Amino acid sequence: MLSIAMTLVPGLRTTGSGNAGQAYGAAASSSAVLVLFYMAKTLRLQRDETTLQREELALQRQEMQLQRAELELQREEMRRSAGELHRSAEADLRRLHMDLLKMSIENPDLAKAWPAYAPGLSVKRNRQYTYANLMYCHFMLAHQLGMVTDREVLGHLRYITATDIFRGYWEAARRMRAEMDPESQEARFAALVDEAILQAGAQSGAGSGSGATAATRSASAVTVSPDVSAPPTAAPTATPTAAPTVTP
Q1: C-alpha to C-alpha distance for 238 and 193, rounded to whole angstroms
Q2: What is the pLDDT of residues 174-206, one digit of tens each?
Q3: Which H helix or E strand runs over 106?
Q4: How does pLDDT run across 130-169, given as a tens digit for each residue?
Q5: What share of the chain is helix, strand, coil (3-state, %, to 5)?
Q6: 131 and 232 in contact (C-beta within 8 Å)?
Q7: Fewer CB atoms inside 10 A, N or C side of the chain?
């Protein structure tokens, strides 16, 4: 249409400009240039639009990645919160167990509700074993709450396991520890107590010149004397003792 219109222009139809065919050719050339310009502009616009779409898709992918990362952080936070709640509930339960043991020490009538650690134990030794059980529960709870490291708790354990009362209690509770899950935290802590007894025995033996004998005696050959009274509690303690114990 543009080419035909241009042939009607008076200036293009003069004798000086040649015949109508020449005018039409000039008009066609001009229109072709215009069409090419328009096509080039259209292609450039399409290319720009495609680039913008790609950039928009890239931004959407980044946003989705950020959302996934945020969801993962939220899940991790929920897992941490659940773990902390579980540890808090476990600590509260163990504290309640320790309170039950303390009540049995203070009240002989309540102490009778707990089984003895071993047959033939006197009431006095029984109460001493219950107290040793409380000592064990205390350090185990501190260790499991992360308040002391393995190395630090070993120092405390070497100190409290140096007495015949604690070793007698530990030996009397051996049958209860045998029922523990070997993969449990309490079993791991009980292994630390065994190690502390060995170390304390080795140190004692080195000082007296009979290291091997002392180490062996302290590690496992701790016999329960007839006077060693098992705590009227003992079974459900946070110790490596009885199954119904809420041990830390």
Answers
A1: 13
A2: 988 888 898 988 999 999 999 999 988 777 665
A3: helix 20-106
A4: 999 999 999 999 998 888 999 999 999 999 999 999 999 9
A5: 75, 0, 25
A6: no
A7: N
